């Protein structure tokens, strides 16, 4: 069986880890990476241990995030005890944690601090081939491309008057057809239009989207106080393929690529194709701003309107929603006036429009970001947020790998900021058409 490379990384470095995985596998180097290769229903730690035992070597994405990650340290410890080759791939210029230094102080480092990232991953691939005994890919021989034969010269026309007559006849026919179409179109425009009826299909299992079973009557939620679900005046202002004009990772490493945005009911689907990774997300609009949550697992997005009286009025959606599903609603009360951080009582309405839920929400300010945790019917749900004017843009998920992006659109440009769960800093991502 071909050698297997175990990728170890902190959640905030997921985009870089995904880029490494994709480029290595494009060069026929198999990788094991969580959460992609984790099977649902089985014990997570056991799967990590099994993957490490089957691996030939480990690549550790080193940054301030991995320095502080106990999961990365556990994986390094296990790989060290199994005698695996550990290759640190440094993406941030930080000092090695003392705990990691015990395992890695005498290990050769691969630095990836400059752009483009691809050249460093290719160098990493070469190192992996050496330690794993993988033959380098064969270099294809250039094949000469034969030139197409020159076309034979067209014979001179002997009857140019025939061509002129045909062109004239065709023009007369085209004019007549245009007149008939114009009259028919005017009659059609004057006919009454029949509006289509929007169908709303509530989720069969609301709890699958992050909401839970009804614990209070729907009247407990003040529906009138929630943010409007109306789109900006021009709903197509977000839609299209945007170029990433200016962007940087949380560690300052620049990147570029494209972002494709498509509308889906009251929401938007977003796909990134950048030099560091590919990802997909779901978005909700607020005026000329777009709040996007992204992950490879079940996740969701929330827009909270921040009240000066210690309240949050929110609208949310999940990655499993269809275009016809309604947005969920959630109000939070009991916070500290003038602050976002604090503890709130929450009451929400599921997207089926009939079942409601209640619980508690804790928000902690962490540098430039906010970390959230909901407690709803004995379930814990994590979130990460970015404050934008009087709104808090939030992504939520059940595991460790998800993030949020906030964009403000002005014509053919958009200014964006993003972060991932557990991070204290934000990255930038500005778009242009």
Percent range for β-strand residues: 25-35%
Record the strand order, biggest sheet.
6-7-8-9-10-19-20-21
The tally of helices reads 7
Question: Biggest sheet: strands, sense, closure?
Answer: 8 strands, antiparallel, barrel
**Fraction of residues in H or I helices:** 10-25%
Low-confidence stretches: 138-164, 166-170, 172-233
How far is the N terminus from the C terminus?
Answer: 46 Å
> What order do the SSEs take from the amino end to the carboxyl end, as H and E?
EHEHEHHEHEHHEEEEEEEEEEEEEEEE
Overall pLDDT:
79
Please provide a written account of the structure.
With 433 residues, the protein is an alpha+beta fold. Helices cover 22% and strands 35% of the residues. It is built from seven helices and 21 strands. The protein has helices at 14-26, 44-54, 64-68, 70-81, 98-104, 117-132, 160-189; strands spanning 4-8, 30-32, 57-62, 85-90, 110-111, 240-248, 257-264, 267-274, 278-286, 289-295, 299-306, 312-318, 328-333, 342-349, 356-366, 369-376, 379-388, 391-397, 402-410, 413-420, 427-432. The strands form three sheets. It has an eight-stranded antiparallel barrel with strand order 6-7-8-9-10-19-20-21. The longest helix is centred in the middle third of the chain and has 30 residues, at 160-189. The chain starts with a strand and ends with a strand. The model is unreliable at 138-164, 166-170 and 172-233 (pLDDT under 50).
